[in-house]
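Cont'd.
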Amino acid sequence: MKVEKISELTTNRLSIYLRCLNELTAQGAKTVSSDGLAQKFHLNSAQIRKDLAYFGEFGVRGVGYYIDDLRKHITKILGLDRRHCVGIIGAGRLGMALADYYGFAQTNFTVAALFDADRKKIGQKVGEVEIFDIKDFSEIVKRDKIDVAVLAVPAEFAQEVLEKVTEAGIKAVMNFAPIPLRARSDVKLKTVDLTISLESLSYFLAKPNNLNGKNVKPNAPKARIKK
Amino acid sequence: MKVEKISELTTNRLSIYLRCLNELTAQGAKTVSSDGLAQKFHLNSAQIRKDLAYFGEFGVRGVGYYIDDLRKHITKILGLDRRHCVGIIGAGRLGMALADYYGFAQTNFTVAALFDADRKKIGQKVGEVEIFDIKDFSEIVKRDKIDVAVLAVPAEFAQEVLEKVTEAGIKAVMNFAPIPLRARSDVKLKTVDLTISLESLSYFLAKPNNLNGKNVKPNAPKARIKK
DNA sequence: TTAAATTTGTGAAAAATATAACTAGCCGAA
DNA sequence: TTCGGCTAGTTATATTTTTCACAAATTTAA
């Protein structure tokens, strides 16, 4: 059996397609062509067709895609046809903000619990979500059937928390700590690194200066620097 | 003059290298080889050398890179040798969480102001940061020399806010609204889409099921569906 | 019923990215 | 001073991703 390797770039785009299809449905459209979708964003229609074709022949030649039908397929492919329970570790500002992030609610994700090590926070609530002792993580995971963990802890603790989370049987982790983590190969780790994004913006702002002076590269330090 | 086109993947990695160099400095190291750096993360040493070589010859053959020297170069390249002022639009939970996100402070970014349209919020403070009326955006931008905008507003307002921000002369924007925006070509827009990241995790969790049934693709709906 | 107009799915080409292999410069020891 | 061991910079190769281009399928119009 040939296992098709689907690139993450492809699945990311599926999310975008799905969003657009929802919008089109709201507008009352019944079908859409790959070209129609492509123009909604800045994408190539062949890419859309190819992305979809990895998973099946969802379209009809001469017509396009039946929006409702395609929506159901993508929803199924992305596993969004069932609810996911999210546990957020780290009840700092970021963790709390994520706890009632509307984006979670909108896409079949429910935040079931927050976790922290700080005694003062344990037992408090953020909206509907209670803060638990991180020590009880495994237990709560089983009780609430948590299947996604979000790491909103300081960088220095992120790796050890990831390991704790892995031991509890979690297979999908979203990490906000600005540090590259090592995960077991059967665990999907997605790091959202705001620092990198910021520095990328900074690079853009600085770039014009870099390009002055005819792009001359500075030479290596030739002289030996003893000690 | 040949303008080297530097990939964003390269500049993203520069951020990572910089972080690692800071760590190494803290550990008292003086030099590091590309291979040493590569092993710290999961990277290829040739890639590191190539990334750095776009900007100059920073290394010394037989030795490696002088850490302090390289840090200074990368800091300069990324434009982190000067402070950036950040304005956050949207004083909801996410905006407020970002306002005192330690990552901003750590990398020479200062959050100068929050903006919102909600009368009740205007005038309040989040930590050191005051919430201003979005109507006064241009003015505050000039006053505080804000050069980076962060969009933490609902998706439906994101495009119009982006335009307002652009009019005020901002050239670098980080968008947290889960919607693809159109920016002027001289404005750098970076979207951090948590929904896509989440759905990517969901795909991973669902995948084993997708691969059952020998990867048979469902066929297209052949019958004509009238009306 | 046939022809023209669409539009998918896909193989081939192109572009971008990453890895490997090689060349040359530098250090340290003999 | 010379040689062997490293290691950066760079060229060549491989891989991945995107785009192009066209045959096949379908609808619409004549």
